Amino acid sequence: MTSTKWWPGELGRYANHALIMARLQVISDGHTNDYGVCPFIVQIRDMKTHKHMPGIKTGDMGPKLGYNMKDNGWMTMKDVRIPRDQLLQRFVKVDREGNFSVQGDLRILYSTMLCTRYFMISTTRHYLGKALCIALRYSVCRRQFKNISGRQEETQLLDYQT
């Protein structure tokens, strides 16, 4: 459970490939060198049968509150070895001999995730503004208590123009 990725979009039922951030371990001369987390493009389902590739399991999570247009899912990988040609080698390179080199700033690899999270936070203010407007308009019209004579007044909803 600790190595399961929860809520990635399009992974529940439809995706055949996934962008995976995984540890890059290069085995050369009997030694394993660990170069940290790097991006890989991995086939997770067979293109014809749509069945899972060996060692990969995915499932559907259902809708996510406020982000229902995505096919949200989960994925686990167990004993999956990713070949070198599936490493996205714009910022890191591994040649056929297993030599590792860095091209540019590795922090750029996380920019997509940061931009997505910024988008979700920045669009939330729009929906919170709508909810606040509705709540304020309702609170102006609603009568909670009885009047001085002890009778409950009928609530008249005012017609507001937006």
Structure description:
The protein is an alpha+beta fold and 162 residues long. It folds into 2 domains: 5-104, Beta Barrel (Butyryl-CoA Dehydrogenase, subunit A, domain 2); 105-143. 19% of the residues lie in helices and 27% in strands. It has 1 helix and 7 strands, in the order βββββββα. The chain has one helix spanning 111-141; strands at residues 5-6, 17-28, 31-43, 56-60, 73-77, 92-94, 100-102. The protein has a 3-stranded antiparallel beta sheet with strand order 1-5-4, with no helix packed on it. It has a two-stranded antiparallel sheet with strand order 2-3.
SSE layout and pairings?
Layout: E1 5-6, E2 17-28, E3 31-43, E4 56-60, E5 73-77, E6 92-94, E7 100-102, H1 111-141
Antiparallel strand pairs: 1-5, 2-3, 4-5, 6-7
Entry keywords:
alpha+beta; 2 domains; two-stranded antiparallel ribbon; 1 helix; 7 strands
Structural class: alpha+beta
Per DSSP E runs of 2 or more residues, the count of β-strands stands at 7
Number of helices: 1
Q: In sequence order, what are the helices and strands, one letter per element?
A: EEEEEEEH
Shape: elongated
Which spans of ≥5 residues are poorly predicted at pLDDT below 50?
A: none
Overall tally of domains: 2
Strand order of the largest sheet: 1-5-4
The CATH C-level class name of the largest domain: Mainly Beta
CATH homologous superfamily (4th level) name of the largest domain: Butyryl-CoA Dehydrogenase, subunit A, domain 2
Biggest sheet overview = 3 strands, antiparallel
Task: Classify the beta-strand content into a percent band.
Answer: 25-35%
Q: Radius of gyration over alpha carbons?
A: 26 Å
Mean pLDDT: 82
| Reported CATH architecture of the largest domain | Beta Barrel
Helicity, as a percent range: 10-25%
The separation of the N and C termini measures 48 Å
